[in-house]
Amino acid sequence: MLNVELIKSGLFTTVQDGGREGYAFYGIPSSGYMDRSAAHIANLLVGNKKDNALIEMNVVGGTFSFDRDCIIAITGADMQASIADIPCKRYQTLIITKGTVLKFKNAVNGMRTYLAVKGTWKIPKIYGSKSTLCIGQNANVAGRILKISDRIQIESLGNVHNTPVVFWPQIPDYISIGTISLTKGPEFTLLKKPKLLSSSYSISRRSDRMGAILNGPVLETQLQETFSSKFLFPGMIQCTPSGKLIVVLQDGQTTGGYPRVGFIPKKELDRFNQLRPGMEFRFRVLD
């Protein structure tokens, strides 16, 4: 059994997997990877199933030690990772030897980094998922952000030193993201003027895994007083009474009473979730 110990926690470091389904009716969010594409690639590089549990880090990464040889992969944002103080690459298979320390710093390209480790992660499921669910009083690592001295047990599979090194052919450049594609939402026609599609936006620093608050023009809606609460899921864009836009994210609420003026599809939401606060972008409508 491999033990991965957290020496430094970083900023909002959690365990995530493919998320949970079937609990929105009860107000329980899907959770799961913020960047599904990056997470899937990390798991595939180490030979895990693509929806396997892994570690997600935000803005500032953690420091980890390993008490056995193992296979890892790092994808997503560039957090200046190093193994035994030697810089290591993202988007390829990496071999970690017993006692080695893996360090991450602050992200310089993108927002969220993924650390996959080959094997079966011994973490209890909450509502069918190993993804962190920070509601209620859950004491284990599936119910809170990771903290110093936490240990994740992983049942390692196969011979580490016979593992081929695999390189992913394309490493995304998140700094170059300038547009985010969307489809018009169910209440798009309630917007008085189509500023949504002709203006620049940026993500507020007050955003989190529940929702991204957008800085940009104030929008007006022709909202009836009888507008009732509607279903929500990650990627839905709401227009608040103040005219601000909020993008519902993986830990977001499952219903809401604001007009849903747009929707960001899953692959585009992966890109959106790698935008750093303050980076300007525009929306464009998918054909």
Give an account of the 3D structure.
This protein is mainly β. The protein has 2 domains: 2-171, no CATH class; 177-285, Cyclophilin, CATH 2.40.100.10. It has helices at residues 36-46, 266-272; strands at residues 2-8, 14-16, 54-58, 63-66, 70-78, 82-83, 86-87, 94-96, 101-103, 109-117, 120-121, 151-155, 179-184, 200-203, 211-215, 230-231, 236-239, 245-248, 255-256, 260-263, 281-285. The strands form 4 sheets. A 7-stranded antiparallel β-sheet has the order 7-6-9-4-1-12-11, with no helix packed on it. Strands 13-20-17-18-15-14-21 form a 7-stranded mixed beta barrel. A 5-stranded antiparallel β-sheet has the order 2-3-10-5-8, covered by helices on one side. The protein is elongated, with a radius of gyration of 20 Å. The mean pLDDT is 93.
Whole-number tally of structural domains: 2
Helix content: under 10%
Form type: elongated
Radius of gyration equals 20 Å
Fill in the keyword field for this structure.
287 residues; mainly beta; Cyclophilin; 2 domains; seven-stranded antiparallel β-sheet; seven-stranded mixed β-barrel; 2 helices; 6% helix; elongated
Short description:
The protein is mainly beta. The chain has two domains: 2-171, no CATH class; 177-285, Cyclophilin. Helix content is 6%, strand content 31%.
How is the secondary structure organized here?
Blueprint: E1 2-8, E2 14-16, H1 36-46, E3 54-58, E4 63-66, E5 70-78, E6 82-83, E7 86-87, E8 94-96, E9 101-103, E10 109-117, E11 120-121, E12 151-155, E13 179-184, E14 200-203, E15 211-215, E16 230-231, E17 236-239, E18 245-248, E19 255-256, E20 260-263, H2 266-272, E21 281-285
Parallel strand pairs: 13-21
Antiparallel strand pairs: 1-4, 1-12, 2-3, 3-10, 4-9, 5-8, 5-10, 6-7, 6-9, 11-12, 13-20, 14-15, 14-21, 15-18, 16-19, 17-18, 17-20
